[in-house]
Structure formats: structure tokens, C-alpha cells
Specification:
It holds the Pfam family DUF3187. By secondary structure, this protein is mostly beta strands. It contains three helices and 15 strands.
């Protein structure tokens, strides 16, 4: 665990411990969508109260990533797109606890987003990172070190990802303690996960006054993971993570949200930033809920403030429906 990533987690925990018992908040339902992050139990955070009724969430995350680096005798190319379809069920376990399960389906390939993303980056003056110099809509994941290819994949496909099972309990005040187990149901050879992992973290609402149009949360925790066959000797097994989120109620049924999600380096012993850097994802979106509860619709997009440590573009849509 690096000192910088440790400070992120400890700062979030310190802030969380100061928060009084106030109404629950809920963050954007997104994490690092990088292909090389699928070997780690990085949970959705920011749910600061138990669910009050059973509900289903159907989601799709469209992610495009591009990294092409050659540094210190190493070369890495991460070029592809993923459509992640998720189906999540949550159920109350009384007034203080809940549980959930999510089943993901991954479709990977060259995709179609390279051209629109290059245009997006041009409009907002964002770095292209070499996209404009490479062939568009191609799938290639390759990492070479000391002349040896440690990762080499040229074709995508459709695969089951790692099923996630979680639970949460209110401990004291507004603090929710949550845990998640990532089951090895994915295929390591298809870069779809396939290793066991677990995470434990705290979600706490920020101390805005009751009735305020502003809300938010702080989260912090640790992820512990079994070694995967994907870059096994460079994979870190213990990853600290933390997040801060804020929401603004624009209308009784409409919120605007922003979220920062940070985690420690997923890999080490490398000269390329895509493996060595800590991760930071900035997500911005909106949520509409009928009468403040399900059904809800959520739309958000994600960028990478720390370049190359996570995908430079991800778009998410989710629909939440009450269970009958």
C-alpha cells in the first residue's frame, strides 16, 4: 500500500467519522471500468442507508480505453471497448441491514466510440493520448517486458463477468459498514475477471443540514484479492480505496451528482503509468426518481483525472425498478 493511497483512504475515514446521523445519500453506481481492473474487488460505494424495499437495477456501462506507451524496456497497449450489462438485486434485511447480488455480462471488441471520443476531446481541449495517431475501433491488449509478451489478446467476445454478492449494516449514527465478495465466475483467458476478491468499507453521508438541497457521502475501505493469471507477478493483492460524492437537488425528483473515486495502484514493479499509477475516476451525472424513490433512471459519464490509470471515457445508464 503506497503512502499516497493510504492518505486518501484515511482522509475519507476521518471525514466520515465526523458526520452526524442525517438522511442517507446514494452515489453514482460506477467504478473503474478498465479491463485490467476486473481482477479486483472495487465496489460501488456511496449508499449510506439500507434499502427500504426490494429493487432491481439494470445497467449498461459503455467504456472505451486507449493507452499506448513504451517506457524503460516495457511497452503496453490497451485498446478496446466494453459494453458491461449488469443486473443487480437488493433486498432489505430489517431496518438496519440489506443484501445484494449483481450478475455482469461483458461484450468486448473494437467498438465504435473512437471517432466520437476524439471529437469530444477536441471540443473540450482534452489530451487525446495518441488516439488520433492510431487505427480506430480496434481491439488489442498487449504488454511486453524485457522482450517477453506477458499479455497478448487480439479478439474480444461475450462473457460472464465476476458475480458480486454484498451486504451492509448500520453500525452507529449514520455509518454504514458494507462488504462485498467477488466470485471467480469470469474467464481469465478472456480478461473477464476469474479470481476471488473481497472488499470492506464504510459509507457515511456528509453533514449537510436536514432539508438542504445539497447532499453527499464519504467512503473508504480495503480490497483484498486472490492472484489472477493476468500479470500475476505484478498484481497487488491489497488495494485501499475511497470516494467523495456530492449531489444537488434541482427538482423534487431530479438530482445532479459528481463523484471522485480513488484507489491505490493495482499493479507494481513497472515503468508504465497504466500499471504503476494510483487510479482516480471523475464521474458526473444525473438521477431522476419518481416521488424520491424507485423507479429511477441514472445517466453519467466518467473521465480519468490521472491519465492512463483508468479508461479515458465511460458512459453509464441505469434503470431502477421496485421488486414485486
Amino acid at each position: 500500500m503506497t503512502s499516497s493511497s493510504s492518505r486518501v483512504a484515511l482522509s475519507c475515514l476521518a471525514l466520515a467519522s465526523l458526520c452526524p446521523a442525517i438522511a442517507g445519500a446514494q452515489g453514482l453506481g460506477t467504478t473503474n471500468q478498465s479491463t485490467l481492473a476486473r481482477n479486483f474487488a472495487l465496489p460501488v460505494v456511496g449508499q449510506t442507508a439500507p434499502v427500504s424495499q426490494g429493487r432491481w437495477t439494470a445497467s449498461i456501462d459503455l467504456t472505451s480505453e486507449f493507452v499506448d506507451k513504451d517506457e524503460g524496456g516495457e511497452s503496453i497497449r490497451l485498446d478496446g471497448e466494453t459494453a458491461r450489462f449488469g443486473l443487480r438485486f437488493e433486498q432489505s434485511l430489517g431496518e438496519r441491514a440489506d443484501w445484494n447480488i449483481e450478475v455482469p455480462l461483458l461484450h468486448t471488441g473494437g467498438g465504435f466510440l473512437d471517432g466520437p471520443i476524439e471529437g469530444w476531446h477536441d471540443v473540450f481541449g482534452l489530451p487525446q493520448g495518441g488516439r488520433e495517431e492510431s487505427a480506430q475501433d480496434r481491439y488489442r491488449y498487449r504488454y511486453v517486458r524485457d522482450g517477453q509478451a506477458l499479455l497478448d489478446a487480439e479478439s474480444g467476445g461475450t462473457n460472464l463477468g465476476d458475480v458480486q454478492v454484498g451486504a451492509g449494516m448500520r453500525l452507529f449514527g449514520a455509518t454504514m459498514l458494507r462488504g462485498m465478495i467477488k466470485l471467480p465466475t469470469g474467464d481469465e483467458d478472456e480478461l473477464a475477471g476469474g479470481n476471488l476478491g473481497a472488499a470492506l468499507w464504510a459509507d457515511v453521508p456528509l453533514p449537510f443540514e436536514a432539508g438542504s438541497r445539497l447532499g453527499g457521502f464519504a467512503s473508504a475501505g480495503l480490497s483484498v484479492n486472490d492472484k489472477s493469471d493476468v500479470l500475476e507477478h505484478q498484481q497487488n493483492t491489497v488495494i485501499p480505496f475511497g470516494a467523495l460524492g456530492f449531489d444537488l437537488r434541482l427538482l423534487p425528483s431530479l438530482q445532479a451528482l459528481v463523484q471522485l473515486y480513488a484507489h491505490g495502484p493495482l499493479y507494481d514493479d513497472s515503468d508504465v503509468n497504466a500499471l504503476e499509477n494510483a487510479g482516480l475516476q471523475l464521474s458526473i451525472g444525473g438521477r431522476w426518481c419518481a416521488e424520491g424513490k424507485a423507479p429511477c433512471a441514472e445517466l453519467s459519464f466518467q473521465e480519468d483525472p490521472i491519465v492512463a490509470s483508468s479508461p479515458d471515457f465511460s458512459l453509464r445508464f441505469a434503470l431502477v425498478l421496485p421488486a414485486f
